[in-house]
């Protein structure tokens, strides 16, 4: 028997409590805590069509925008919306950590009957929440307001649609960038950014050797659906999960075995940094800024904060395309903003849509990219003078790279199994690379056994 996911268990428990409190029945509603909003929605929050906001209302937004530049931009956006929207809507933000923390908080909140109206959701959470009917369908609002879905970058719609519904809008999507110390590369006789993983590894090993084994050449944090996914994708064409989301052929086609062995050997030889057990991304960046690491791969969403810190520390920063086996390769990750229908009124959902629409305006999309590094999400924003002028400055070439990579970047399949498989693979990577208490062969064996319990095709 296949495992039941955590969300299903939480929902089952939540529904049991609700039915018991109501004395049984086929549907249940939860009173909204907002006295100014209308009655809470039931199983189909869009059944009566979209409403306009009719009275001042406050809604909450749970997010992962916790870095300095991200958080400052978010607060500025929310303040502008709160000050200018015609409906008296007030958005209040609550930081939850990383995207996976947002998902975990929502899962817990569903069981407790306390969820936000809006949330920035990862590729792990969207299919789970959408399949359980927790996310509001934005289609009626899109149609009512003439919002042009063809204007949304097609590569960013992988986690927008679920069956025949629009369940999210791309918000903090990003590719990855190779951030490197140009001076360290030059000192090792290297005059250009790498064009393949093999070349990157050669550079990294040379820098490590020339430094007397004190400066590691490259580092990756552990994120199976992002950093490791694109490296596997460059080997097998699909990444860590099959295109249909129903299996993981990487376990049997040799690609996972090769990657596990390679990554283990890179770290064993010393020139590839082993990620820290906690706050790995921050620790890796600090090593880079302190001159102990020559290059690392991180999201383009951190481009502004990394650039500013590098300038403060006197680092001659280079930003380049990410590379995989045999050539350029890039991941496509980040978050999409969704409206939580579960337990919320039509008025709250209508208010949330107004904020989503505001975030998708050309001005907001362009500013979000310029001030933080997240991808521009609409074609019309890319055509604005604001973005064209920004990209024309050679100092901002890394930002343009992040956008140019989109057409060739890859993301895991939209699947109900992504979240659980991600957790299992993360554990295997951690045991192998950080714990170093198993071999690549044992890590692969563990993954094969776990896949049998997760995927229906295994």
TrEMBL record:
Transmembrane segments: none annotated. It comes from the Bacteria. InterPro entries: Bact_solute-bd_prot1, SBP. Residues 27-49 have a biased composition (Polar residues). GO terms for cellular component: cell envelope. It is found in: Cell envelope. Pfam families: SBP_bac_8. Belongs to the bacterial solute-binding protein 1 family. This is Extracellular solute-binding protein. It comes from Candidatus Flavonifractor merdigallinarum.
């Amino acid at each position: 028997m296949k495992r039941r996911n955590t969300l299903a268990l939480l929902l089952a428990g939540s529904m049991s409590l609700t039915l018991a409190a109501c004395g049984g029945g086929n549907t249940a509603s939860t009173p909204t805590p907002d006295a100014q909003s209308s009655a809470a929605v039931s199983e189909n929050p869009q059944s009566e069509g979209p409403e306009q906001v009719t009275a001042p209302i406050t809604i909450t937004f749970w997010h992962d925008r916790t870095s300095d530049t991200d958080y400052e931009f978010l607060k500025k956006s929310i303040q502008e919306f709160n000050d200018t929207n015609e409906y008296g809507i007030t958005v209040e933000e609550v930081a939850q950590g990383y995207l996976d923390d947002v998902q975990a908080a929502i899962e817990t909140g569903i069981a407790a009957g306390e969820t936000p109206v809006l949330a920035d959701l990862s590729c792990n959470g969207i299919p789970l929440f959408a399949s359980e009917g927790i996310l509001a369908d934005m289609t009626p609002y899109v149609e009512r307001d003439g919002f042009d879905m063809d204007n949304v970058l097609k590569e960013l719609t992988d986690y927008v649609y679920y069956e025949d519904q629009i369940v999210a809008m791309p918000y903090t999507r990003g590719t990855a960038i190779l951030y490197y110390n140009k001076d360290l590369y030059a000192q090792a006789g290297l005059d250009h950014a790498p064009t393949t993983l093999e070349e990157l590894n050669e550079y990294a090993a040379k820098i490590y050797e020339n430094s007397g084994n004190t400066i590691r050449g490259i580092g990756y944090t552990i994120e199976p659906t992002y950093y490791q996914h694109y490296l596997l994708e460059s080997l097998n064409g699909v990444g860590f999960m099959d295109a249909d989301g129903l299996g993981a052929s990487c376990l049997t086609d040799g690609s996972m075995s090769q990657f596990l062995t390679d990554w283990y050997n890179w770290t064993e030889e010393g020139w590839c940094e082993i990620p820290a057990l906690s706050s790995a991304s921050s620790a890796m960046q600090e090593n880079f800024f302190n001159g102990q690491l020559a290059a690392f791969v991180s999201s383009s969403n951190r481009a502004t904060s990394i650039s500013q810190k590098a300038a403060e520390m006197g680092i001659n920063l280079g930003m380049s395309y990410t590379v995989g086996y045999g050539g350029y390769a890039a991941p496509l990750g980040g978050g999409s903003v969704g409206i939580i229908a579960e337990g919320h009124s039509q008025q709250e959902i209508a208010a949330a849509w107004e904020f989503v629409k505001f975030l998708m305006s050309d001005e907001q999309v362009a500013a979000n990219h310029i001030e933080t590094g997240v991808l521009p999400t609409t074609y019309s924003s890319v055509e604005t003078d604001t973005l064209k002028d920004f990209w024309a400055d050679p100092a901002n070439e890394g930002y343009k790279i992040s956008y140019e990579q989109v057409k060739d970047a890859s993301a895991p399949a939209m699947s109900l199994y992504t979240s659980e498989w991600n957790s299992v693979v993360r554990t295997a990577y951690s045991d192998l690379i950080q714990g170093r208490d198993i071999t690549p062969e044992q890590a692969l064996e563990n993954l094969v056994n776990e896949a049998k319990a997760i995927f229906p095709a295994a």
